[in-house]
Structure formats: structure tokens, C-alpha cells
């Protein structure tokens, strides 16, 4: 018995020694990592001082620091960036739904400015700028070498001042020059109308006005169309580049009576957040069809994914963009703010849309007119340099290929919209409509 106790004590002592060794190793590794970080920061300081002392012209020190911060953030992924005080103010104005500019949602691809989506009824949309266009020059000045922020600043300016965009468009051999006259961009984020016995709701982006605009649209339609004649609603999210997460949650909530809408998962498990709907369906259970395409991104994908998972709506169109990450704006006092990717979002069933997109329940590809063939396509998140991969780390080559982002200006030519209207009216039949709520995820 004494021998046994002695062996246990020896084992405990050995365990303590091993544990102490591990702690020392871990502490040593942490010290080494910290030391390496300080060496890199010293390197940055040395380079900064050398530039200040010996560059051929005296540099603006604040610009050097800003460029270094921007480079650090943009190296993470295509959506993280630095907002200097002016750009931070501009961003705040934009989320309120009014700002000055051309009216295009852009990102950076291959060191050129890529148009994610022109915003409806803005100078860029009226001038003929299309989703997927690559802007190579701004008033003759090369975009190559500019940061995205510098390019955006150059596109903004005084109202009524023109700017010439030189565009490289897929399927067109020669560059295209488009003159766009700057204007105040007032975003009416929700448009609506009655299509005889169907309510049509189009959300162009998710800003602070969106949920109120949707509520007003639903109220107007239900007053105009008697309840016994109203066949349902079409929610059009095509070419909607996204916006505010809370507005995407509010829009989803308008069509759901209960259940999870979206979850966000950051680096640490304790950062996980889940957002659920409140009781009450604003359209009182009427059938809903959601339209998406290659220009539907971010917040619009949250809505489409939530309604699809709960089998509350049928998704019609083509695969969406695939931007499934959340950017948090972190103010830096007088120094502006940073836009930092802090989480991926997941649909109620646990799907990550990042670099994947939402696959429609019914795929309907809009045929292009002859003069636009080969021009209107977008390649999605998976094609952006430095993008984050989906949760499983694997990517289907198909997700990188082009998906249609063309919507005809005349509703009569809109194949996707007319198919949705026919489904709601019963003149078109498909096994995916109406969806079966019992096959959705548990509430």
C-alpha cells in the first residue's frame, strides 16, 4: 500500500514536472513570437525613417502611415479597409441612404476597380455601366496603382461635374468610354408596385431606411389588392449589393413568424451570435418568391438563405455572389475608422454562403439581347483575389465561373420576374413551389 502511494506520488511529481516544462515551452514560444513581432515593427520603423530622410522628395508622413494601414488591412481580404475621417463620414452618410457620387457598388480585382452592381436610377445606371465592368481609367488616369479608396475618392466630386470612365467589358475587344455626370445619390432602397394580383417589392440595398420602406410597400400593396385576390409577393433582390446586417434581419423577420434568421461566427466560440425572428408575419402567410442573381450579395443573401432554409419562400434566378462575411466598423476617434472582417455568417441550417452563394431552388437564366451577349456577367466572391474561403475550405470551380447579373429594363422582357408571376398565379407549375414548410429546418 505504501509502495502504491509512493508510485502515485512519483507519478504526480513527474506530471507536475512535465506540466511545468510545457508551461515553460509555451511561455518561451509566446516570448519568441512577441520578440519576432517587435523585430518586424522595428523594421517598419527603420523603413519609415529611411523614406523620411532619403526619398527624392519630402513625403507627407501622414500619407505614409495611412498607406501602410490601408495596405495591412487590404492584405487580409477584399472587404477590410481603412476609412480616413472623410471616408468615414461619407460611409455614415451612405448608410443613411444619401450620398454624392456616381451610384455604383465597387470592389478591387486584379488592381482594377470592378463594378459589383450599378444602383438603380443613378447616373452610372442611366449611363450604361454594368455589373462586372472593370474600370481601368478615371478621366484618363490609370486606376492601376491606386487603392480602392483613392479610386472611389476620385469618382466622387461636385454635383453636375462629369467624369469619363474607361471600361474593360467581357466580350468586347476595345475599351469603352462612358461619360457619367455626378449627382446627389438619394437611395430609395425599396420600390414597390402591384402586378394586378401580385405584390412586387424590390430592395436595391440595405440601408437605414430599408425596413420602413418595406413596411410601407407591403401596406400599400395590401390596401390596393383585396386579400382574396392577392396571390402573393415577389421580393426582388437581384443586383442588390447588400448593406446593414440589422436591416437584413428586419426584412427576413417581416416574412417569418419564428425561428433563426442568421448566425455570425467569429474567431472565438464566444463571439457567436444568433438572430431570431419575432412572432408575426407581415404578409400573413401569403406565398413569397425571392429573385436573386450574380449581383445579389451579402445582406440580400442573408434574406434569401433564411427564407429558403425555412421553406418560407422559393428562390428563383441564378446563383448569388457569395459574400458571406460580416464587416464591423471600428471608430478610431479623430483618425476615422477601420472596416474589419470579424465573422462569417451562416444561414439557419448552418450553411456558409462565403465564396459559395445561394443556389436558387429554380434556376432561370435571363437571355441576353444580341448586343449585350458576353457583356453582363459577374464572377462572384470566389474569384476575388485574397477572398476568405468557405467554412469547409474547399471551393467548387463552378462557383468561380460567371453567373448572370443582367436584368432587362422592361419588365415585359424579364424572364425571371414573369416566371415568378406565373408560378404565383398557377399558370406555371414547378415541384419547388410552393415550398413545404414541414421540410424546413426546425423552428
How would you sum up this structure, described in words?
A hairpin with a 5-residue loop joins strand 17 and strand 18 (about 335-345). Helices cover about 35% and strands about 25% of the residues. Helix 6 runs parallel beside helix 7 and helix 7 packs parallel to helix 8 (about 300-310). Strands 3, 4, 5, 6, 7 and 8 form a six-stranded antiparallel β-sheet that branches. A six-stranded mixed β-sheet has the order 10-11-12-15-16-19, with helices on both faces. Mean pLDDT is about 85; it is low at about 1-25. The protein contains ten helices and 21 strands. The chain has two domains: about 100-185, Roll (Pdz3 Domain); about 190-440, Alpha-Beta Complex (2-enoyl-CoA Hydratase, Chain A, domain 1), CATH 3.90.226. The chain has about 450 residues and is an alpha+beta fold. The protein has helices spanning about 1-55, 60-75, 85-95, 125, 150-155, 210-225, 245-255, 300-310, 395-400, 415-425; strands at about 80-85, 100, 105-110, 110-120, 135-140, 140, 160-170, 175-180, 185, 190-195, 200-205, 230-235, 260-265, 275, 290, 315, 325-330, 335-345, 360-365, 375-380, 405.
Amino acid at each position: 500500500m505504501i509502495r502504491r502511494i509512493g508510485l502515485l506520488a512519483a507519478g504526480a511529481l513527474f506530471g507536475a514536472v512535465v506540466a511545468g516544462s510545457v508551461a515553460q515551452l509555451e511561455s518561451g514560444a509566446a516570448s519568441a513570437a512577441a520578440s519576432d513581432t517587435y523585430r518586424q515593427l522595428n523594421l517598419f520603423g527603420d523603413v519609415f525613417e529611411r523614406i523620411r530622410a532619403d526619398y527624392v522628395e519630402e513625403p507627407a508622413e501622414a500619407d505614409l502611415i495611412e498607406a501602410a494601414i490601408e495596405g495591412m488591412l487590404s492584405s487580409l481580404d477584399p472587404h477590410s479597409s481603412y476609412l480616413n475621417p472623410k471616408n468615414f463620414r461619407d460611409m455614415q452618410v451612405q448608410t443613411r441612404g444619401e450620398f454624392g457620387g456616381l451610384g455604383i457598388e465597387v470592389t478591387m480585382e486584379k488592381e482594377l476597380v470592378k463594378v459589383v452592381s450599378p444602383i438603380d436610377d443613378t447616373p452610372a445606371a442611366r449611363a450604361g455601366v454594368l455589373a462586372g465592368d472593370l474600370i481601368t481609367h478615371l478621366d484618363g488616369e490609370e486606376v492601376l496603382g491606386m487603392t480602392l479608396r483613392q479610386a472611389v475618392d476620385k469618382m466622387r466630386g461636385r454635383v453636375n461635374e462629369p467624369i469619363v470612365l474607361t471600361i474593360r467589358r467581357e466580350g468586347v475587344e476595345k475599351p469603352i468610354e462612358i461619360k457619367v455626370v455626378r449627382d446627389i445619390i438619394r437611395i430609395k432602397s425599396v420600390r414597390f408596385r402591384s402586378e394586378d394580383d401580385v405584390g412586387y417589392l424590390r430592395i436595391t440595398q440595405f440601408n437605414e431606411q430599408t425596413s420602413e420602406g418595406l413596411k410601407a410597400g407591403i401596406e400599400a400593396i395590401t390596401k390596393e389588392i383585396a386579400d382574396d385576390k392577392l396571390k402573393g409577393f415577389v421580393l426582388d433582390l437581384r443586383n442588390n449589393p447588400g448593406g446593414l446586417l440589422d436591416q437584413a434581419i428586419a426584412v427576413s423577420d417581416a416574412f417569418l413568424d419564428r425561428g433563426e434568421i442568421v448566425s455570425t461566427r467569429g474567431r472565438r466560440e464566444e463571439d457567436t451570435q444568433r438572430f431570431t425572428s419575432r412572432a408575426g408575419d407581415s404578409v400573413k402567410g401569403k406565398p413569397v418568391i425571392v429573385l436573386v442573381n450574380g449581383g445579389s450579395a451579402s445582406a440580400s443573401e442573408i434574406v434569401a438563405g433564411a427564407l429558403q432554409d425555412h421553406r418560407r419562400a422559393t428562390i428563383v434566378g441564378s446563383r448569388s455572389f457569395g459574400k458571406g462575411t460580416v464587416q464591423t466598423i471600428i471608430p478610431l476617434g479623430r483618425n476615422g475608422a477601420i472596416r474589419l472582417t470579424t465573422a462569417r455568417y451562416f444561414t439557419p441550417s448552418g450553411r456558409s454562403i462565403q465564396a459559395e452563394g445561394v443556389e436558387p431552388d429554380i434556376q432561370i437564366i435571363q437571355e441576353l439581347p444580341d448586343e449585350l451577349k458576353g457583356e453582363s456577367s459577374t464572377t462572384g466572391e470566389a474569384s476575388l483575389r485574397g477572398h476568405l474561403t468557405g467554412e469547409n475550405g474547399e471551393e467548387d470551380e463552378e462557383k468561380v465561373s460567371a453567373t448572370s447579373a443582367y436584368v432587362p429594363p422592361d419588365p415585359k422582357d424579364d424572364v425571371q420576374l414573369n416566371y415568378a408571376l406565373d408560378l404565383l398565379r398557377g399558370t406555371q407549375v414547378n415541384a419547388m413551389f410552393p415550398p413545404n414548410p414541414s421540410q424546413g429546418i426546425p423552428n
